[in-house]
Amino acid sequence: MAETAQKIIKINLAELLQILNEAYAEEWLAYYQYWLGAKLAAGQMRTSISAEFTEHAKEELEHADMLANRIIQLGGTPVLNPDDWSKIAKCKYEAPQEEDTITLVTQNLASERCAVGRYQNICDLCFGKDYETFSISAHILKEELEHEQEMEDFLKDMDLTKKIS
Ligand SMILES: [Fe+2]
Ligand SMILES: [Fe+2]
Ligand SMILES: [Fe+2]
User: Fold this and answer.
1) Which ligand minimizes its atom distance to the CA of 149?
2) Does the predicted model carry a pTM greater than 0.90?
3) CA 52 to ligand 3 centroid distance, Å
4) How far apart, in whole angstroms, are the C-alpha atoms of residue 73 and residue 152?
5) pLDDT tier at 50, thresholds 50, 70, 90
């Protein structure tokens, strides 16, 4: 714990730590969803979608890393037991329903939209009150928006491919 980290924020610490731990749990679930999806993916645009999923898995893990560091800096403890990830996550893990790329991308798009809302909310909460958490959340928000856009683009491309074939 960094002593000043707790002192300078103008938000309820317990509430903030709870929210950061929810986001932290969600990132591990997002990581696994992409990591597994990259291996299962079959069908249209498999090679490029699988590569993008692998890259996003890496980025979700980086988000988990940033959140864990911030939680510790604030004197909290990142979720200790993976059993609790699903319990505290508000953005839920979407177990792959099918292995085809359209289903997987559609499921990941839904997850990304939830993640965008999550970081928009953390930014709103921290704006002007906790600059460091704001900065971390704004960075993650930027990447979640990119992820959302890329999932939308894949679906659009697959739809167009279907129309011309
Ligand atoms: Fe993320
Ligand atoms: Fe994401
Ligand atoms: Fe990407």
Assistant:
1) 3
2) yes
3) 6
4) 36
5) very high
CA distances from 9 to 76, 129, 151 (A): 14, 6, 36
- The CATH superfamily of 11-164 is Ferritin, core subunit, four-helix bundle (1.20.1260.10)
Please state, in angstroms and rounded to a whole number, the distance separating the CA atoms of residues 153 and 142: 17
Distance 59 CA to ligand 1 centre (A): 7
**pLDDT (tens digit, 9 = 90+) per residue, 77-119?**
999 999 999 999 999 999 999 999 999 999 999 999 999 999 9
Hey, what long-range contacts does 132-139 have (CB within 8 A, 24 or more apart)? 132/5, 132/70, 132/73, 133/9, 133/16, 133/20, 133/70, 136/66, 136/67, 136/70, 139/66
